Amino acid sequence: MKRDIHLIQNNIKDLLLVKGITEVGFVPAKPLTSYANFIVNDHKNHELNYDNSYHKNLDSEEFYNPQKLLKGAKTIITIILPYHMENNNQIYSKNKNYKISKAAIFKDYHHIIEEILSSLQILIQEQYNAKSIVYCDTGPLNDKAVLLQTGDFKILRNSLLWHRKYGSKFYIGYLITDLDISTDININTDLDISTDMGINTDSDINIIKKNQEDNNHLKMAHPYCETCGKCANACPNKAIQKHGHLIGERCISYLTQSNDWDKLTDMTLSGYIYGCDICQMVCPLNKIDLSEKYSYEPVIGEYVELEDIEKLSNREFKAIYNNSSAGWIGKKRFIRNIKENMLGE
User: Fold this and answer.
1) pLDDT for residue 309
2) Does residue 182 form part of some domain?
3) How far is residue 5 CA from its own chain's centroid?
4) Exposed (0-12), middle (13-18) or buried (19+): which is 318, by Cβ within 10 Å?
5) Tens digit of pLDDT for each residue in 297-315?
6) Which of 275, 272, 226 is closest to 254 using CA atoms?
7) Which domain holds residue 56?
8) Cβ(341)–Cβ(306) under 8 Å?
9) What's the Cα-to-Cα distance from 134 to each of 47, 88, 113, 138, 250, rounded to whole Å?
């Protein structure tokens, strides 16, 4: 008996809605070659990394083919978990406190998303006898490549993905299953994704149209970024380049997490000890923010002082910070990053 795809999709959406997830995608578990080809074809002549996590051999099918991760995979179910980020200029204030990215002060999103998708695993196993596997920053597939298949997202100049409701302020998770409930997606290239923000002029739109005709890769990129550049101008280390090229090793977020401290030299951490919010805070496309309805509270403070970290034992540090997504870098790197900021003052 043929299953009612929409009925199953609605059943899954109902379960996820109870968990607070409002945006769900159902895409075919086909090789994710479009993003991989975008990286290779449009960036092959640049000594830049569009996506710092994309350092893998494209000859390896496990890198882009869901079939290699789950035999008989038919569908990828995608979810996003928004977080709230106040749009203010607080990131530029100079005081004795050092900052943790707003994206990292809540409960570790890996655990939240894995808990939600584990519930979904149980549902599809018990009701549809289907196999599945869950990922959140842990699998060989690129999370951005997966999400782009839904047609509901665009790539921003800073290399982050953008959603109409939540801007670039969300976490990503997905489940691969052999349950056949995917929906064919038409990638949205209409200009309304930028004009509905109320920020484009007629001149902007004409430039965007011309660029979309000349550059096929802009079907995945947000057209507004062609006439903006605020994120690139605001980035202290000039990590953000034209058309979304990102020099990963210059990104503050990367530097705060990296062990390769000798690469810092002429760069700054701009007051951050974990992650960075600058490019998201200045982005005009982040003006609309509906994520305040997600009422989860921060589990750690946004600001930190050196003496407060130094007086903690390793066990005390873990008890406080390992509940967040920032704690994994450990006490030593917290102290290292604070001292590096102090040297730059």
Assistant:
1) 95
2) no
3) 29
4) middle
5) 889 998 999 999 999 999 9
6) 275
7) 5-85+108-177
8) no
9) 33, 35, 9, 9, 31
Answer whether residue 167 is part of any domain: yes
pLDDT tens across 43-67, in order?
Answer: 444 433 444 444 455 556 777 789 9
- Which of 279, 249, 232, 252 has its CA nearest to residue 340? 252
Residue tagged 């690129």 (tokens) = 142
Given pLDDT bands bounded at 50, 70 and 90, which one contains residue 248?
A: confident
Beta sheet of 98-100, edge-to-edge order: 272-274, 98-100, 303-304
How, if at all, do strands 75-82 and 170-177 pair?
antiparallel
Q: Is 163 domain-assigned?
A: yes
Average pLDDT of the residues in 313-320: 96
State the pLDDT at residue 211.
43
Beta-bridge partner residues of 172: 80
Q: Assign 175 to helix, strand or coil.
A: strand
Provide the percentage of residues in the chain whose pLDDT is more than 90. 48
d(CA 82, CA 23): 10
* E strand residue ranges, 169-318: 170-177, 272-274, 303-304
CB 162 within 8 A of CB 156: yes
Single-letter amino acid code for the residue at 246: L
Looking at the structure of the chain, the number of domains it has is 1
- Chain centroid to CA 1: 39
Most confident of 21-35, 189-203, 218-232, 312-326: 312-326
Of 118, 28, 116, the closest CA to residue 65 belongs to: 28
251 located within any domain: no
Between CA 324 and CA 109 the distance in angstroms is 8
Q: How does DSSP assign 280-324, residue by residue?
A: HHH-GGGS---GGG--PPPSS-SEE-HHHHHTS-HHHHHHHHTTB
Residue 36 pLDDT: 62
- Torsional class of 106: left (φ above 0), alpha (ψ -120 to 50), beta (otherwise): beta
